[in-house]
Amino acid sequence: MQKNSTPRVAFIGAGNMAGAILRGLIQQGFPADHIWAADPGQDKLDALAKETGIQVTTDNAEAVMAVDLVVLAVKPQRMQQVLQPLQTAFQQQRPLVVSIAAGLTCATLQGWLGEALPLVRSMPNTPSLLGAGVAGLYATAEVSDQQKSWVEAISQAVGEAVWVSEESQLEAVTAVSGSGPAYYFLFTEALAAAGEKLGLPAELALKLAEHTALGAGRMLSETPETPAELRARVTSPGGTTAEAIRIFEEQGLHKLVDEAAQAAAKRARELAEELKG
Ligand SMILES: NC(=O)C1=CN([C@@H]2O[C@H](COP(=O)(O)OP(=O)(O)OC[C@H]3O[C@@H](n4cnc5c(N)ncnc54)[C@H](OP(=O)(O)O)[C@@H]3O)[C@@H](O)[C@H]2O)C=CC1
Ligand SMILES: O=C(O)[C@@H]1CCC=N1
Predict the structure, then answer these.
(1) Which residues form the Pyrroline-5-carboxylate reductase dimerisation domain (predicted)?
(2) 56: part of which helix (H) or strand (E)?
(3) Binding pocket residue ranges, ligand 1, CB within 6 Å
(4) Whose CA is nearest to atom 5 of ligand 2?
(5) Which of the four pLDDT bands, split at 50, 70 and 90, describes residue 277?
(6) Which of ligand 1's atoms lies nearest the C-alpha of 18?
(7) Percentage of the chain surpassing pLDDT 90?
(8) Domain definitions of the chain by residue range
(9) What is the average per-residue pLDDT within 235-250?
(10) What's the distance, Cα to Cα, between the start and end of the chain in Å?
């Protein structure tokens, strides 16, 4: 990203997801002096400032007033309480607002911001930390082309970005890629535990499971084959993989994954309903 076209960005809430994005941005060469983080945790902020060189504050309004783009990165349940005291700062500064909160709709957020502001909903994921994130994006009508290009550039600096045409599609994005890293981590935990049960030392089983996830992920992203084609190459007829796949299929893996994703999307819709003003 060119420095002269680089927006100044503030993260309201400096937790897991904001930390992953802002560290990813800095690793990709985004200027640290263009980044603010606001959070009640002074020790957390001090450590982050020392590590990254960004500007930090416990005063959310100070961060809003200093930037062109504000990323709302607090828990959905905390958002209303965070936004209402910031209405004056938002109206004065009129930054682009990017909410990464699961569930909360543009209509609810605009109500809490007090007046229609350019607003993007983004659903990123934690691999942003390593430049391997993927974010689903949805923009309201107030968002200019330049502001869209800022959000794309920031999202692409830490991974891939895709625009969805309907806001409701973000609940599906949340269920697939927002929460998705945790599914792969859970599978890795389960595979490592199975390896241990088969007689491997715990550390070795974990290393094998982790490195297999890395290799499989790289093959998925770096080769043109579909997941099914890649799977077929591992699965020798009458061999070991076929036996394992048979168990996954007999036990209903597809149904299980479908139910899990449905539950995640349902929870996103419930959050929206529970928290709307
Ligand atoms: N984690 C993930 O993988 C993803 C998360 N998201 C979304 O990102 C958002 C943040 O999630 P996550 O990073 O996991 O949560 P965290 O709890 O790690 O981060 C939230 C941060 O906000 C801080 N905070 C609390 N109150 C305020 C306040 N009044 N002003 C400023 N900051 C405050 C919290 O401090 P304290 O801890 O002291 O309360 C914490 O540091 C959520 O809305 C979530 O839906 C989206 C995609 C993926
Ligand atoms: O679990 C959550 O609610 C957040 C949103 C997607 C990933 N983490």
Answers:
(1) 167-271
(2) strand 55-57
(3) 12-18, 38-41, 60, 73-76, 78, 82, 100-102, 123-126, 178
(4) 102
(5) low
(6) 13
(7) 94
(8) 3-167, 180-271
(9) 98
(10) 38
Ligand 2 pocket mutation pick from 16, 173, 174, 185 by most atoms within 8 angstroms of CB: 174
* Single-letter amino acid, residue 221: S
Which ligand approaches the C-alpha of residue 127 most closely?
1
Helix (H) / strand (E) element for 123: namely strand 119-123
Count CA within 13 A, CB hemisphere, residue 32.
Answer: 13
Q: Structure pTM?
A: 0.95
Q: State whether CATH 1.10.3730.10 applies to domain 180-271.
A: yes
* Gap between the Cα atoms of 276 and 198, Å rounded: 50
The predicted model gives 213-229 an average pLDDT of 98
Does the interface ipTM go beyond 0.95? yes
Q: How far is the CA of 79 from the centre of ligand 1 (A)?
A: 9
Q: What integer pLDDT is reported at residue 245 of this predicted model? A: 98
Burial class (CB in 10 A: 0-12, 13-18, 19+), 19: buried
> In the block, which residue shows the tokens 């409701």?
168
| Of 245, 262, 97, the residue nearest 174 (C-alpha) | 262
Annotated ligand binding at 74? The verdict is yes
On the question of pLDDT at 3 being above 70, the answer is no
Q: How many CB atoms lie within 10 A of CB 114?
A: 14
Please give the DSSP secondary-structure letter assigned to residue 141: T
CATH superfamily of the 3-167 domain: NAD(P)-binding Rossmann-like Domain (3.40.50.720)
Residue 51 pLDDT class (50, 70, 90 cuts): very high
pLDDT at 43 over 90: yes
Q: Which of 16, 17, 78 to mutate to test the pocket of ligand 2 (most atoms within 8 A of CB)?
A: 17
